[in-house]
């Protein structure tokens, strides 16, 4: 059955069939070939139960929040402000890519949206100032992945929904690894550009007054993040309510900078409907597929496979990490999450591991999948914004950042408190 699911998934995705439809088709195939009773009779109930959750309402709110910030021009001003603060480092404007991606990750909740935002704003600067296209575009693709780690994260909301773990605790757990990855990206770029200065372009130094004046464009994003996260951890709002508060805050910021118009609102709502529909189709399709997989006995089959290997809990985690790395080459990230979580997470918990810690470990592996070919979505987003050059340049540019992510995976396995320190301290 595992072979059928893997081959079927790759074959259907290669036909450019939408991911959500692929998941439904696989579920129908498992029902027909592997089930002794008609599972399709439970389709209506599965569609309803998998989408009837107040938690999932946070997804369109966070998507709308990001859409408002992007389409109102706030992203462009934020990028210009961060340019004044970080371009003195070896690597120059490459650091502004990472810093801007980090700030928008703290509000948008989506890696693809973050990468698209930064790429649209930054790429004209790269061509004008003569930056190395590989490192510059690779930094944008890698920085965009932080959108699913730094809270509020749509993927962490989905993980919490599927595993029934605390979303506020997951948000706290993702904060230190997310900021740690951002810092490690900046250090990696600085080292590379110190060794090979020609890759980093011009280092620009701005006056202190210019840096301070730029803060007016950074403080609103910082305050918006503090408002969203603070309202959750002070008990003033649930994640869903905080997302609604964030949308109101983003609208006020856009209005303050004169970015509100009928066209902006219309485009933001249209973009939100498209992105949310895609996410929910994947979630619902994966729920039906997981239902058929469980009913056909795949969970027991996989559990028996891992048990027969005779591995220790540490060895089991290493095997699971390798599985995610390999699958990440071929399967879209949200699909990879929702298909594997109901099967893998119970096995991990049985081995004595914390589900919140594993959620953060999984997110790092999912981030890696976003920038590894052939299916890494951020690679295509950045290449689309470039409008010139080869995809291979973007792929080569992400190699240093993939190595940083692998180092973070090793650090999380060796030192779980990197993820668990904040949730335990603030319980």
TrEMBL record:
Name used for this protein in its record: TRAP transporter large permease protein
Question: Looking at the Swiss-Prot or TrEMBL record, what is one Pfam family this protein matches?
Answer: DctM
Protein role: Part of the tripartite ATP-independent periplasmic (TRAP) transport system.
Q: Is RNA-binding one of the keywords?
A: no
Report domain TRAP C4-dicarboxylate transport system permease DctM subunit positions. Answer: 7-418
Family under the similarity heading:
Belongs to the TRAP transporter large permease family.
Topology versus the membrane: Multi-pass membrane protein
Top-rank taxon of the source lineage equals Bacteria
Keywords on record: Cell inner membrane, Cell membrane, Membrane, Transmembrane, Transmembrane helix, Transport
Instruction: Kindly state the subunit structure of this protein.
Output: The complex comprises the extracytoplasmic solute receptor protein and the two transmembrane proteins.
InterPro entries recorded for this chain? Answer: DctM, TRAP_DctM
Subcellular location field = Cell inner membrane
Q: Which organism is it from?
A: Pseudohalocynthiibacter aestuariivivens
Give the transmembrane ranges.
6-34, 54-74, 94-123, 135-158, 170-193, 214-236, 242-265, 277-296, 316-349, 356-381, 401-422
């Amino acid at each position: 059955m595992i072979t059928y699911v893997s081959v079927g998934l790759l074959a259907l995705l290669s036909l450019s069939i939408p991911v959500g439809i692929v998941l439904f088709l696989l579920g129908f195939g498992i029902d027909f070939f592997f089930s002794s009773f008609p599972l399709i009779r439970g389709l209506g109930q599965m569609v309803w139960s998998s989408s009837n959750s107040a938690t999932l309402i946070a997804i369109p709110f966070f998507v709308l929040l990001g859409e408002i910030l992007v389409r109102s021009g706030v992203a462009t001003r934020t990028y210009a402000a961060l340019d004044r603060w970080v371009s003195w480092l070896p690597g120059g404007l490459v650091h502004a890519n990472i810093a801007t991606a980090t700030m928008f990750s703290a509000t948008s909740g989506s890696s693809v949206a973050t990468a698209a935002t930064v790429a649209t704003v930054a790429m004209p600067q790269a061509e004008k100032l003569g930056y190395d296209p590989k490192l510059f575009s690779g930094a944008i693709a890698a920085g965009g992945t932080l959108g699913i780690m730094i809270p509020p994260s749509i993927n962490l909301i989905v993980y919490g929904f599927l595993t029934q773990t605390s979303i506020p605790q997951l948000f706290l757990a993702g904060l230190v690894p997310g900021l740690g990855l951002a810092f490690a990206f900046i250090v990696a770029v600085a080292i590379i550009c110190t060794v090979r200065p020609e890759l980093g372009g011009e280092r620009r130094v701005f006056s202190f007054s210019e840096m301070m004046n730029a803060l007016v464009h950074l403080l609103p994003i910082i305050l918006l993040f503090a408002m969203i996260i603070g309202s959750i951890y002070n008990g003033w709002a649930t994640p869903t309510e905080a997302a609604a508060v964030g949308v109101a805050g983003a609208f006020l910021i856009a209005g303050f900078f004169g970015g509100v118009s009928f066209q902006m609102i219309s485009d933001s709502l249209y973009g939100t409907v498209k992105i949310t529909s895609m996410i929910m189709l994947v979630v619902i399709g994966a729920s039906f597929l997981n239902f058929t997989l469980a009913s056909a006995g795949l969970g027991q089959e996989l559990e028996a496979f891992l048990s027969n290997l005779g591995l220790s809990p540490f060895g089991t985690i290493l095997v699971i990490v390798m599985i995610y790395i390999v699958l990440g080459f071929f399967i879209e990230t949200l699909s990879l999450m929702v298909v594997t979580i109901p099967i893998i997470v119970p096995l991990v918990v049985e081995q004595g591991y914390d589900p919140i810690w594993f959620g953060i470990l999984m997110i790092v592996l999912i981030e890696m999948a976003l920038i590894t070919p052939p299916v890494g979505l951020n690679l295509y987003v950045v290449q689309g914004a470039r409008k010139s050059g080869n995809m291979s340049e973007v792929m080569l540019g992400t190699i240093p950042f993939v190595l940083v992510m692998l180092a973070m995976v090793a650090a999380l396995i060796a030192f779980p408190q990197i993820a668990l320190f904040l949730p335990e301290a603030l319980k």
